[in-house]
Structure formats: C-alpha cells, structure tokens
Design goal:
globular, 222 residues, single chain, eight-stranded mixed beta sheet
Amino acid sequence: MCGRFTQAYTWAELVALYGLTQPAINLQPSYNIAPTATIDALIPRNSDQLELWQMGWGLIPSWWTKTRKELPSTFNARAETVTARPMFRDAFRERRCIIPASGYYEWKPTPTGKQPYYISARDGSILSFAGLWDEWHDLESGQQVRSCTIIVTDANALTRPIHGRMPVILVGAQPTAWLASAAAATELLRPAPDEMLQLWPVSRRVNRAGNENDPKLIEAIH
C-alpha cells in the first residue's frame, strides 16, 4: 500500500518533466501527505498536454449515491483487481492520471514497533505514480468533488524487506502510454526497477498525521 507520501517539488521541475503550459501554480511542499488530503494530480487535457489539478486523495466514483462518510477506503487501488472492481474499473478505462511524488513512506515491523522508511528516486527526480481520478456530485453540499487514487502492486526486491506492496511508478515513456489507452495501461501495472530507488529509515514522528510542513521528516536517522 501507499498510505503516506511527499510532494515537495517546484513548478519549474513539473514543467520540465511534464511539459505543462498552464499558468504557474504556487505550490507548497508537503512532507507527510495522508489520505483525504488535497494533492496534485496530472490529467490529459488533449492529445499531447497535461494539466495539473488538485484533488482529494481517496477516489469517489461518479456513481456513488451514499454520503462521503460511507465510502470505503479508496486511497489505493490494487493492480490485480483495478480493472474489475466496480469502485475503480470505470476510472481505469476512462480517467487515468499521473500523481507526481517526491517520495513515499512504508513501515517495517521491528521488535520495538513499526519503523518508517522513506523511499525516493535514486537520482532525486520526481516519481510518477499511476493514478485514477473521478468527479462526484455531493448531494449534501451540492459541490462537485474531484478525487483520485494511487495504484499499488507487488514490491520490488529493494523495497520488499520493508513492505510487500509499492505504488506503480511510471518510468521513461510509460506516462504517455499510461494515459494513451486502457489496454496499454494494463501492461504497466508492475513493480519499478530495483535500481531506480533508494530508501532509509526516518523519524517515527512521521507516524503522526498533520505535520506535513516539516522537511526533517525525510531525513535519515541512524
């Protein structure tokens, strides 16, 4: 699973990586993003351009007729069932997105409790998580709510000793293929190459949600 992650990049870095042409957004770094938070997501606006939108983390499908509080956990979608599970299958066919990330956290069981680790690109680059998005009409508030989810798959050899799952990370030309068609996207639901990532233990202060503005959370401990 991916239950906490970071988005701590600049607008210039997003433009360089994804070719954004929209007016600049004043981005604020977040070092401990938890489900239900508002996060950055990239959606295709035409055949060759992406646009950054901000959405709630935890997908609410457009057909959902109950309240938001009655929604099951949807901040992650399993790669093995995402094409068939009713909660995600329509979005997989029609509304795939990219969720940029600076890194993510996973927890390793130890005799003294779960130890958090920070996992990021070895070269310091932005990670492109495979995601899905949707738009839902909240009957209680009358608002249109945009939301998204991160797809997870089996961990690779590097991260498996920490946790058995990891986000689907799109590399090279894969983001273009991911957005192009559902058939092509299905082939990309696999672990990231071992050599592209690095990890280290971090403070257990990351266990407490709400301290997303603290860059020291991603510093290695010894």
